[in-house]
Inverse folding.
């Protein structure tokens, strides 16, 4: 039985077409309404009102160099063994006050004592040989004077005496060297102070300071009546410091304690930083006073104040921008937008910068670049006011 195609129904087709057009019209109208309500706020002029701003305020600003270091005694001596050996006795405890030449620990002496005994026996034997050779030489000398000995026999006797004397001298030198090594098995204090002993145990092996590794560090004897902080300053900032400059020191474990110090030494030769391989100069800051809670090895933060100004016009660092010519500028609020204005700056700390010219107090400025200002902004540097031309900031 043959099938027939469905009949075309004009009314249904028109109804579906009108429904489709109504749906697209609704979508278009809704999209326009959403754009009018939110579009300008996202991309238009309302974007300007979302830029965070701040007011130009007076402030006190200190330009500082901040570095980290560790506490250490001004006068201290490291303890290292001059010979390798095994610790047999530790005579004092860590933190104990000791006197100069006081015994701290002792290394095993048995092997050296055995060698010394053998050397002393060799010395006795060499003395007997030397005495016999000397008597024989004296006898040969008398015979030679009477013409009763040949020259060959006489010279041989003198040679045997010289060999005996040399042998005795060698054994004497060996014995002296062993006695010196024996004395080095006892580690003593080089001066009065407090013993800062490492974690050592009896029976532990230590290496000598002459080894390639520099030997085992046993500890140090430190005079804790005077403490300092040794820190590293980069090659750019170190030129702004000098011996005698004051500094403030905050020990990290004692946050409420702020100590004063003075630069006593600036290294003349740079070393390489172990952190980022930059060139740094060790700087020693001696504390004006100490505290019983302070211990060598504590971490400390050192602050060097280079300059200080009070009650000056200032803005946040984030509000200041610069172009390719290093001209600084800010964005000042004007009506519904912002205008670019060149400024001249003074000193800065970690949060604010001093404004020499270009702004006045209470002006409103943007703390980030408005969206309509893109790319390089050409701007001329403002002229300094008369009072600012002589000195840009006050030195401490």
């Amino acid at each position: 039985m043959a099938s027939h195609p469905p009949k075309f129904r004009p009314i249904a087709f028109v109804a579906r077409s009108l429904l489709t057009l109504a749906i697209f019209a609704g979508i278009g109208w809704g999209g326009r309404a959403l754009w009018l309500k939110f579009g300008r706020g996202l991309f238009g002029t309302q974007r300007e009102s979302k830029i965070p701003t701040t007011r130009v305020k007076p402030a006190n600003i200190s330009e500082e160099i901040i570095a980290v270091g560790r506490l250490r005694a001004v006068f201290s001596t490291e303890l290292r063994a001059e010979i390798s050996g095994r610790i047999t006795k530790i005579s004092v405890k860590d933190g104990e006050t000791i006197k100069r030449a006081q015994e701290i620990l002792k290394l095993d002496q048995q092997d050296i004592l055995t060698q010394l005994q053998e050397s002393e026996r060799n010395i006795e034997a060499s003395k007997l040989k030397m005495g016999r050779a000397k008597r024989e030489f004296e006898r040969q000398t008398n015979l030679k004077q009477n013409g009763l000995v040949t020259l060959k026999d006489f010279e041989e006797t003198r040679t045997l005496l010289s060999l005996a004397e040399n042998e005795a001298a060698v054994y004497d030198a060996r014995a002296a060297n062993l006695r010196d090594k024996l004395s080095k098995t006892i580690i003593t204090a080089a001066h009065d102070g407090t013993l800062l002993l490492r974690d050592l145990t009896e029976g532990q092996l230590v290496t000598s300071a002459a080894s390639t590794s520099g030997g085992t560090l046993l500890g140090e004897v430190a005079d804790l009546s005077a403490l300092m902080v040794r820190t590293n300053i980069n090659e750019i900032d170190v030129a702004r410091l000098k011996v005698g400059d004051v500094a403030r020191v905050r020990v990290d474990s004692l946050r409420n304690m702020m100590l004063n110090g003075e630069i006593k030494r600036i290294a003349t030769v740079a070393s390489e930083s172990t952190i980022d391989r930059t060139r740094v100069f060790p700087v020693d800051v001696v504390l004006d006073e100490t505290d019983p809670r302070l211990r060598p090895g504590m971490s400390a933060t050192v602050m060097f104040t280079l300059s200080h100004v009070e009650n000056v016009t200032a803005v946040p660092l984030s509000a200041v921008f610069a172009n390719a010519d290093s001209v600084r500028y800010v964005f000042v609020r004007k009506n519904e937008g912002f205008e670019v204005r060149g400024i001249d700056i003074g000193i800065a700390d970690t949060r604010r910068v001093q404004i020499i010219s270009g702004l006045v107090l209470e002006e409103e400025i943007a703390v980030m670049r408005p969206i309509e200002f893109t790319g390089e902004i050409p701007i001329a540097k403002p002229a300094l006011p008369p009072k600012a031309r002589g000195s840009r900031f006050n030195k401490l």
Notes: Residues 23 and 29 are 10 Å apart (CA to CA). The chain has four helices and 19 strands.
